[in-house]
Amino acid sequence: MYTLLSGLYKYMFQKDEYCILILGLDNAGKTTFLEQSKTRFNRNYKGMNLSKITTTVGLNIGTVDVGKARLMFWDLGGQEELQSLWDKYYAECHGVIYVIDSTDEERLSESKQAFEKVVSSESLDGVPILVLANKQDVETCLSIPDIKTAFSDCTCKIGRRDCLTQACSALTGKGVREGIEWMVKCVVRNVHRPPRQRDIT
Ligand code: G3D
Question: Which residues are involved in binding Mg(2+) (predicted)?
Answer without folding.
Answer: 31, 56
